[in-house]
Amino acid sequence: MRNAQLGPSNEEALLQMGVDAPQRTGLDGSGVLIGFVDYGFDILHPTLLDATGSRSRFAFLWDQNAACEPEPALSSAPARVGDFERERLDVLVDRTRRAASRAAADATYDPHANYFTRRGVGEGAHGTMMASIAAGTPFAGFRGAAPGADLIGVQLALPEQGWKEVDECGVPTWTDWDPVAKPVWNGWRSYDESQNIVSALDYIYTKTVAFRVPALVINLSIGAWAGAHDGCSAVERKIAELAARSESGEGPACAVVVLAGNAGADDGHFAACVSRAAAAEFQWRMGANDPTQNKLEIWYGSESPLRVTLAAGEGDLGPTFSLAPGPTHPIRLGGRLVGVAEHATPARGGLSRVRILLHPPYFPRWLAAAAAAEIAWRVRVEAGDSEAVVPLHAWIERDDGIVERSILLPSHPTSTLAPFACAEGVIAVAAYDHHAGGSGLFAASALGPRPWGRTSTEAPLIAAPGHRIWGAKSKSQGFALTSGTSPACALVSGTIALLMQKALREGKRPSREALSASLFGNARFKARRWTPRLGYGPADIGPAMREATG
Predict the structure, then answer these.
(1) CA gap 11, 385 in Å, rounded
(2) Predicted confidence (pLDDT) per residue in 178-219, tens digit
(3) How confident is the model at residue 549 (pLDDT cuts 50, 70, 90)?
(4) What's the mean pLDDT in 470-484?
(5) Which of 355, 358, 340 is nearest to 300 (CA)?
(6) ω into 410 cis (within 30 of 0)
(7) 288, 282, 285, 284: which is closest to 362 by C-alpha?
(8) pTM confidence score
(9) Of all helices (H) and strands (E), which one includes residue 310?
(10) CB atoms within 10 A of CB 55
């Protein structure tokens, strides 16, 4: 018998979104698959088991970190490393129950393995929390938005050293680079170009097609901040491909739901237009005691190179580096390599790119002493003799923590979206504080619009509660609070699963346009006023839920 004691609840957030209890609406997400690309899923947490506590809610689970041979498959499908179908997961659940210990299950699949930061899992694996928020089985007073949906999870093998230019200890990977022997350094990494995420999306979609599930929601409560934000990275193209298939009527109806990002208050974006008459200049400031590498990406809308210089310190304190296109630039202070830079023209689709890495622990003492608490680097971009007006955007890469964060001065809070939110066809989700009502400010929520205007610039599309949301805490039977656009994204994913279930019952194929209208109370969302912070406003599927009961 499952524990029925009352515990934490997101009921206020769900009701504000119009998500009523399944027993009153008949909608619980049944018949819909919700796929999660994330970090760690606790298959043993009660809210990720069925109502009896004996069967997994996960129809499929792929652990990209798996390095050992799997157990024999329990179905006719061939087994592969790290790929679990529900039957195998149920065996692990049963073993745990019989042994009154999770050791055997964790030895086969560990939701905390190879986590994405060096700081560990904190309040529990991120994927566990997001899956429970979107679709958790009722337990101890808690429920997810779509507790009847089937789940599919991909545990990413993408820790920090997989998308940052550092090793597993945080040491820069360019430390031993010899510019004389190898003028071009090829160690650049980018979250939005990750083949692990592309493979995860392919896995979820392929499984859905193979098992003829009619409707799929893909939840991407993940993201970094740097990138072109042009919809053309490897991950953005894969997202757009899946969304386009759905809109064309191919395969299952598929909605890709993506977080807006949590860079809204980080002072991490700078924008300008550069011309012969107007150069752009800003400071990149970082803590003198910052223990981590910092990364800046500058993208501009021209295939012809602009003149870019980087200067150490304020005033004439340190040297100036000219970052012309060509071989990788070593950044040296006092004879020591403290960073690297590249300038590519063009880099992609008519855009050029400058990337700069700096590691404060390598800075000479005179620079830190002169700066006191913060060290300023000055970036200047000039157009030369061209008559063109060139748009420019610069973004700092995500660096979690307070001491570790660098900032840009001046900075612009708009266009601070995570790159995945710039993919064509996504439903990008911002966050608000539902405790303060539908317009309650959640300052960290990233702002639109998409920067380049090549597709619709209107991202985020929608907002959902994102402050102090409860989610399942992995390797426990408890729960923990989380805040950000990640839980807001998960709430919208679960909500869309309910709308898809309703459409399937009515014999309809849910389109993005129809789902978007239902998310806004069955009103045409384009009739609303779009804002950079909340998109077209908070989600409210109340009218659609009432239609289901009427």
Answers:
(1) 61
(2) 999 999 999 999 999 999 999 999 999 999 999 999 999 999
(3) confident
(4) 96
(5) 355
(6) yes
(7) 288
(8) 0.94
(9) strand 307-312
(10) 15
